[in-house]
Amino acid sequence: MDHSNLAGQKCHHGMCLDHGPEWENVGEKRREPNPGIFGKKTYWKRRHCRQPMARYKEVQTQRCRRCGRTEDNVTNRYLALCLCCGYHFNDIPRYT
Fold first, then answer.
1. Cα separation, 40 vs 88, whole angstroms
2. C-alpha closest to that of 75 among 37, 43, 42, 29
3. Which of 4, 20, 77, 89 is the most exposed place for a label (fewest CB within 10 A)?
4. Mean pLDDT within 64-70
5. Among 94, 91, 68, 81, which Cα is nearest to 30's?
6. How is the chain split into domains, by residue range?
7. Mean local confidence (pLDDT), 48-72
8. Residue (of 49, 48, 43, 52) closest to 78 by Cα position
């Protein structure tokens, strides 16, 4: 039986065993859809190209240098993106 399997080096709640994680960024940041409350997928008051802006978030994949465990880290939750031309900006919510 091979005990060097990296998948066995993490516990059930996503923490590295026997060490603190030492994160490094892997690859480029990517944009993923970020539906809001009740599945709302657009900002209706924000417009570009006469279309509502889509709600997106930026995600960066990180890897632990010691055990190789990967995790997705959200770097920006409030990204407004025009699906027509790709124009984007950070939409800071008013309630924070």
1. 18
2. 29
3. 4
4. 84
5. 81
6. 20-90
7. 86
8. 43
